Amino acid sequence: MTYDPRTAAVLALHWQVNVIKPEGFFGAMLGEPVARSGVVGRAVRFHESMRAAGVPVIFTRFTVPVGEGGLVRNTGFMKAVGDAQEAFRPDAPGAQLIPEMCTPAEGDWVVDNQKLSGLAGDDLPAWLAERGIDTLLVTGVATNLTVEQTARHGTDLGLTVHPVSDCVTAATDEVHRMSLANLDLATAGCLSSDQVVALFA
């Protein structure tokens, strides 16, 4: 099995300060396990490998513009970020991509939304369809939240979705493993970064 870089994209979810760094809004929950896992360095290397293969990298950010945009406070998660929305303004320090992910590259794109799925509440599905992209390789944090929600959403849209198993992580190892097990059934299957790179060699 091989994939065509012209019909694939990396969807890099929530690599932003509020999610990844200890000083971010979710830092108390995710900062330490993210650092311990080493996922940031692996994801950076994976993104670089995919760019070198001609695959675009699309970053999503969870932001809350003035007026709340498409935010709907229908879950505890959405209520919490709605109550702290100043920390999620598009220009707020916590909403920015982490420094490790900020090296600009031709073809990269940053998409903002107010949904847990990176494919909801934005123009991304139409953008992918217009370019004939039918395969998504998903990285990001957290495995059981935006990664799982987006991967399932993409599958329901008819896309071939592969969560990149060593480029995602969660608050606990157990939750991470359970979410990957779910995704292995609900998507085209989880693949390691090395396995994905080999598919584009």
UniProtKB/TrEMBL annotation:
<protein>
    <recommendedName>
        <fullName>Isochorismatase-like domain-containing protein</fullName>
    </recommendedName>
</protein>
<dbReference type="InterPro" id="IPR036380">
    <property type="entry name" value="Isochorismatase-like_sf"/>
</dbReference>
<dbReference type="InterPro" id="IPR000868">
    <property type="entry name" value="Isochorismatase-like_dom"/>
</dbReference>
<dbReference type="Pfam" id="PF00857">
    <property type="entry name" value="Isochorismatase"/>
</dbReference>
<dbReference type="InterPro" id="IPR050272">
    <property type="entry name" value="Isochorismatase-like_hydrls"/>
</dbReference>
<keyword id="KW-0378">Hydrolase</keyword>
<dbReference type="GO" id="GO:0016787">
    <property type="term" value="F:hydrolase activity"/>
</dbReference>
<feature type="domain" description="Isochorismatase-like">
    <location>
        <begin position="9"/>
        <end position="195"/>
    </location>
</feature>
